[in-house]
Design a protein that fits this description.
The protein folds into two domains: 194 residues, no CATH class; 80 residues, no CATH class. The protein is 39% helix and 15% strand. The strands form three sheets. Strands 3, 4, 5, 6, 7, 11 and 12 form a seven-stranded mixed β-sheet that branches.
Length: 303
């Protein structure tokens, strides 16, 4: 597809309220940033201006001017960030090569029948390998839905907060993604939302008390810890993981500078992440990545 057609398609996706970002041509990977969070050195202008690593989700946009600047230069593919777009995309795969077995569409149809219904009609894309993406509106209220892999059954994944999909108009390995049904996105069916909603959080651990000196240095570090914990626990929908990463970078700098024990920083950040609604494993990965990035720029506190 020519660059001008990709630009028109990206603008049309944005008009639906979907936040788009460039993918490498003929590839699923984001074109920007070109580095992972744990190796961010602040050389990318957007990371430098933001004061922290800026990933693909934060760069996704509906701004027509930004979209024109990006897609006027190269035939980038189009990624849609599901969280900011308030989308839940059900990814129905097909068996690879000549293997046999049920398709994702078979699995979902069977699940719907068990709930006394059928698959809800909605905006639909056929993927490059012949699978199907069903686009649904994220439920309002309640907890953010996250990505799943096989939770609903064989060959069925979902993309929501923290995930993205390849949009129609893109190609992957020469195979096009095409709109199969161009209609409004339907609300995510209640039965699907119920099955995708994470289990209630376990009882929270007691508040971690950081043992710090009572002098001016201790007061500064205590205030910094409290500020970063508040950043995470008050983050809005779609911003919690990113806020946890920023907090981990900040406390990682203090750890590297010798002002804060690593175990204390890890404990308060883990509790803040889980309190905010992140899964334990997800929070751990984000904290590890953020603290590693922060350790490259130690921050010492004057006595």
């Amino acid at each position: 597809m020519p660059t001008t057609d990709r630009l028109a398609t990206a603008l049309a996706q944005a008009e639906r309220g979907w936040h788009v970002f460039p993918l490498r041509p003929d590839d699923k990977r984001p074109a920007f940033p070109d580095h992972p969070a744990d190796s961010c050195a602040g050389r990318d202008p957007r990371c430098r201006n933001a004061g922290h690593h800026l990933g693909w989700e934060a760069r996704a946009t509906t701004d027509p001017d930004r979209i024109r600047r990006a897609w006027s230069t190269r035939p980038y593919g189009i990624g849609i960030a599901c969280g900011p777009s308030r989308l839940v995309v059900v990814d129905l795969d097909v068996p690879k090569d000549d293997t046999t077995g049920p398709t994702g569409l078979d699995t979902l149809a069977d699940l719907a029948a068990r709930h006394g219904t059928s698959i809800e009609t909605t905006y639909t894309v056929t993927t490059g390998r012949g699978g199907t993406h069903l686009y649904y509106r994220h439920p309002t209220g309640g907890r953010d839905l996250r990505n799943t892999a096989g939770t609903l059954g064989p060959m069925v994944d979902t993309r929501a907060h923290g995930g993205y999909v390849v949009a129609a108009g893109s190609t992957i390995a020469g195979r096009p993604y095409m709109v199969d049904l161009d209609t409004d996105t339907a609300p995510l069916p209640r039965w699907l939302a119920d099955r995708l909603t994470p289990a209630p959080l376990p009882p929270q651990r007691p508040v971690v008390v950081v043992d710090l000196p009572t002098d001016r240095t201790g007061a500064y570090v205590r205030a910094a810890v409290n500020r970063e914990v508040q950043r995470v626990t008050t983050a809005g929908e779609g911003e919690r993981n990113r806020s946890l990463y920023i907090a981990a970078v900040a406390l990682g700098q203090l750890v590297a500078g010798g002002a804060l024990a690593e175990d204390d920083a890890q404990s308060v950040l883990e509790q803040a992440g889980v309190t905010a609604g992140l899964g334990t494993a997800e929070a751990f990965r984000t904290i590890r990545s953020g603290m590693a990035a922060g350790s490259k720029r130690p921050r010492q506190v004057a006595a």
